[in-house]
Each structure stands twice: as structure tokens, then as C-alpha cells.
Design goal:
2 copies of one chain form a homodimer. The first copy, chain A, is an alpha/beta fold. Chain A has 2 domains: about 1-100 and about 240-250 and about 270-315, Aldolase class I (TIM Barrel); about 100-235, Aldolase class I (TIM Barrel, Alpha-Beta Barrel), CATH 3.20.20. Helices cover about 45% and strands about 15% of the residues of chain A. The first copy, chain A, contains 13 helices and 9 strands. The first copy, chain A, has helices at about 15-20, 30-40, 65-70, 85-95, 110-115, 120-135, 160-175, 195-205, 225-235, 265-270, 280-295, 305, 310-315; strands spanning about 10, 45-50, 75-80, 95-100, 100-105, 140-145, 180-185, 210-215, 240. In chain A, strands 1-9-8-7-6-5 form a 6-stranded parallel sheet. In chain A, strands 2-3-4 form a 3-stranded parallel sheet. In chain A, helix 4 (about 85-95) links the parallel strand 3 (about 75-80) and strand 4 (about 95-100). The longest helix of chain A has 18 residues, at about 160-175. At the A-B interface, helix 8, helix 9, helix 10, helix 12 and helix 13 of A face helix 8, helix 9, helix 10, helix 12 and helix 13 of B.
């Protein structure tokens, strides 16, 4: 009866995306505590740290320390982000999973702010990382387009521009001799709407029907879960999310930089609609409360205040 | 190309729904200031006060004073809520618009908490209000079902139960000799999901295809805009919303009682998708900031922090 996927996978981005925007320092032990609690909720993928320039993102200066301290639970993939060859080398030297991804930024201005170089230069520079990944035997199978739905510096980005960016990523994959199975569309600046999700995914599918689309959405303007729902309707089965709604990109030029869609709110919506997430909602709510106590200010998650339906269902059935 | 309505109407509920939950007192002059600012944003309907028992809702004790002080702008309908004959008599004695509505509560437990009586007793008692409305020449054309998507006390409510409630409202309309053109589904306890919106509206339409469905959604669990989007896809063209996300129902048994979907976030999403609202987004954001300064704590609205796209579009076009 439903036109939604039967089961989806949520990748937790809170520890990585979330803590990078915090104004005050977060103790490495607190980061580890949250990561370990998240691993008990049924999450199978947790993005833990970014190996980026500590002068640009001071809160990630402890990446090595955090990565080393996590007691890894079998069956959970703890991952690290890197944006260039230097970061990749740090990631490879550490104990976390290194994702075999390659991608492109949609907006040139955002590329210069976020990566410190033009879209073209970043593509060329990426070849070094790809060579290193291949050399170390990391399978490269995931592509991405960053900021695919719009840009706080450049405004709208046409569907034609994004299709061109996807074509570039696929051409680079061909040059590297790898096959990309998935393509992640990210929206750090929170421009996506249900309509643009439907339109862009539809256009990409038309040209590349075998590419599985995944979504990394931010709830900057309140439309995050509506856009994620539109993604579900388009058959998307992999989403990034952030516990409590932690986070935001420090270079997105948004005064109130907002985090990813909230893990427990999104998981709640999915489960209520019969879309399985494999997650323990009440355990996730506890993690959101832990995250809130760690950062010391309210997080935007709703279910942690509004409550799940577990208690009322237990009482009325 | 789009399957969404070309134009919708948003009724502002912030002053009425919003202020009733505030723990501290809100000065009548501040309420009036917000109402008058909202009237400058393009909103054509603003719910201003509730004529309810001041012992149960102390923040509405000033309803008469607020209603009298509003400088009404032509073309804007300033309305008042009433829940029983006594409230209706107060509303009729005042300068605000009295809506000709009749309805029912879905859950018996919620009816007892919210109205102080059973569903059946409330239906019978409502006949007095209907008689008075008719006597005074107020056209009764709008029905409603309160708490149509689930109950924090009773849990799920079956579609069959809700269809039965709708049938009762329509039977009462027939007894009263009036025709209901619209049926508002309200969700003060925040149980709606995109899937239940689609399912319930679909079921009601099947039985009563000529009844226009309108939605009053709360964002208790973060699914508000996703559910509103599902409503848009079902062709719903009238929505209640609350500036800044102000408010919440004091009797909904939600610890963090959440307000209606946020007016400016919803209007932003609609406009971005090409659904006209007739509203000035930046003026609405200013109203949300005013509401925040009046209540003295952060409100949940996103666009007032994330920003509209007005400036970047002006800069890049």
C-alpha cells in the first residue's frame, strides 16, 4: 500500500558534523562517550571525526585522540572524513574506517570557502587522494555532490549545473578506473525543499538510472524532514542525520548554522510510517539528551521533548 | 508540472495558540503589537484570543481587553475562539469575528481534559452554541475534528473512529439545518505523519468528496512541515500556523508542548516550491523576532535564524 521504502539506513553524523560548530571546547572523552552510546542504539554507521586543518576547524584538533579512544563495537562502522590527501593520510594512519568516496562541490564560491580552492582545482587535487586510496586497496564506490540544492553565496544552482557536476564525478571515476554505485547529494546550506528533491533526483535518475542516490540534508530552514520525506517517496534508502540535530557547517555562511536533520526525529517519522530503521528510538532520545548535556545548550530535536509514543502505546494496548 | 496547489491560505494562530502556553504573563499591549504587526505581512486571518475559562487558561483572562485594543486593518479577519456557549456569548459581545464552526473531539479522554466533558456530552452541549450562532445570523459552514491523528492519552485512533466522528459532525449539522463546506482536522498532540495525513484525508474524501479538508498541525515531534507537505500533495489549501512556532495546547500532556507549524518556515517552504501564500516572508521573520522578544525565550522557528533567500537572490541576480 505504501510507496515508501520498507527499510532505510541512517548514518549518524552528530559526532563529526555536530561538534565542529560548537563555540566552546568539547572534551575528547565526551565525544567518545556519545559515540559509544550511539553505537548501542542500532546505528551501524557513525561518522566520528574529520581529519581537517585544526587551524580552520579547531574542534577537530583532537581527531586522532578521539579515534584512538573509541571502543569499537563489532558490526558498527566508525568513519572519518577527509577533504584532501593530507587528511586522507591522517585517516589511514588511524583506527577508523576510511570511506572510498570521490566527489565535487556544486558552487565554486562554496568550494573556495570550504576547501580553499576552485571546483576545478579541487577535482584535480582529488586525483592524488584517489591514487592513494587505490594504492592502499580501499574500494572507491561512492560519489558525492556537495551543496547540490543551492548556495548561500551563489543562490540557485540550475539542474543543468548539477547534472554537469555529476557527469564530472563520473568522468573522474572512469579516469580512475572505478565504478560508483551511489551518489550522495549534500545540502550543507539548507536549500533543499521537497520539490527540489523530487526534481533533482528525478533528473539524475533519468540520465543515470543505476546510480543509487543518498541524501545528506540540513535543517537550516525547517524543511529538513519534509525534504527527507520527499526523498523517501523518491525511493532514497540512505540518509545522514545528526542526533539531537547537533551541528552545522562552519563555512556555510548561515548565522544560525543548522545541523543535519535530527536522527531521532527522522527515525521516529520513518517508524511511524512503517519504514524500518532498525533503531531504538528511546535509546536515541537518551543519546540526544546526552549530546545536549555535553554541549550545554538546547539542541533543536523535537522528539526528545515531545516524547516517543512508546509509553502511551504500552499503557493503551 | 507540480502536483501542489497554486495558492494556499495560512491562518495565523500565534497570538491565540501561542500565548496561552507561556509560563510568564504577556502584557495585553504586547499581544496587540504582535497582532498588528502580523496584519502587515499579508496574513488575512489572525486568531487573536480565546474566550475560555480564565481559571483554566489564565493567560487568556485579558481576552476582552486585547480584542478591544486591536486597530483592525480592512481586509483582515481577526477571530476569537470559543469552546462553549458561555465563551460564545463573550465572543459575540466583542469586536472580533466569530467563526461559525461546529465540531467534535476524537478522543474521549482528551475531550474530558480539554473541554471538561465527554465527547457525547460536548456534542449535545454544542447544540446550544449552534442555536445561538443561528439566532445571531452567523453562518455556520465549517466543521472540525479535534485530535484527529492520535492521542497522548488514548494512543492511536483508528480511521474508522475518525470517520465515525466526521459522520457525527455532519449529522449534527443536518439536525441544525446547516451545510458544512470545510472540515478542519486538528492535531494538538502532534501525532500526524505524512503517511497518516495521506491515509486519513484519502479516507474522508472517499466518503465525502465535496468536503474541503483543512489542517491545523502541531510540530510536537518535528514532523509538522513534512505532514503539511503531505497535506499540500493531497490538495489541502488552508493551514493554520503560528509565527515563530509559538505555542502549544496546555492540555495535551506533552512535556515540551509544541506550537503549531511555524508560519514563516511553512510559508518559506511553500514559496520555494512555487506555492503562493501572499505573504511577505521577511516581514514575517520580523514578527517572529518580535514574538521572541515578547516571550523572552527562543522560539523554534528556523527561517528566522537560517535566513530567507531574499538577500542572496538580490545579490546574485
Amino acid at each position: 500500500m505504501s510507496d515508501l521504502p520498507k527499510r532505510i539506513v541512517i548514518e549518524e553524523e552528530g559526532p563529526r558534523e555536530g561538534f565542529q560548530i560548537e563555540p566552546g571546547p568539547v572534551a575528547p572523552a565526551d565525544k567518545v562517550r556519545l559515540i559509544e552510546a550511539l553505537a548501542e542504539t542500532g546505528l551501524e554507521r557513525i561518522a566520528c571525526v574529520s581529519y581537517v586543518n585544526p587551524r580552520r576547524v579547531p574542534s577537530m584538533a583532537d581527531a586522532e585522540q578521539v579515534a584512538a579512544a573509541i571502543r569499537q563495537k563489532p558490526g558498527v562502522r566508525y568513519s572519518a572524513l577527509f577533504l584532501n590527501r593530507q587528511g586522507l593520510e591522517r585517516a589511514m594512519a588511524g583506527p577508523l574506517s576510511v570511506a572510498g568516496t570521490m566527489g565535487i562541490t556544486a558552487s565554486d564560491t562554496f568550494a573556495r570557502k570550504n576547501l580553499g580552492k576552485s571546483v576545478e582545482d579541487a577535482v584535480v587535487e582529488q586525483r592524488g587522494s584517489i591514487a592513494l586510496l587505490k594504492e592502499r586497496g580501499v574500494k572507491i564506490d561512492a560519489g558525492y555532490v556537495m551543496g547540490a540544492f543551492g548556495c548561500n553565496y551563489e543562490g540557485e544552482l540550475s539542474t543543468a549545473t548539477i547534472l554537469q557536476r555529476v557527469a564530472t564525478v563520473l568522468a573522474e571515476a572512469e579516469i580512475a578506473g572505478v565504478t560508483l554505485n551511489t551518489l550522495k547529494l549534500t545540502d550543507a546550506m539548507g536549500w533543499a525543499t521537497p520539490a527540489s528533491i523530487q526534481r533533482l533526483i528525478g533528473s539524475i535518475r533519468e540520465k543515470w538510472p543505476d546510480l543509487e542516490i543518498t541524501l545528506h540534508l540540513h535543517d537550516t530552514r525547517g524543511t529538513g524532514l519534509a525534504s527527507a520525506y520527499a526523498g523517501l517517496r523518491m525511493g532514497v534508502r540512505k540518509f545522514d542525520a545528526s542526533v539531537g540535530g547537533l551541528g552545522g557547517c562552519p563555512f556555510a555562511a548561515t548565522k544560525g548554522a543548522a545541523g543535519n536533520i535530527c536522527t531521532e526525529d527522522f527515525a521516529f517519522m520513518c517508524e511511524e510510517m512503517g519504514v524500518e530503521t532498525g533503531l531504538d528510538l528511546d535509546a536515541l532520545v537518551e543519546c540526544a539528551r546526552l549530546a545536549e548535556s555535553i554541549v550545554g545548550h538546547p539542541l533543536p530535536g523535537h522528539v526528545m521533548r515531545g516524547g516517543t509514543h512508546t509509553a502511551v502505546r504500552a499503557a493503551t494496548r
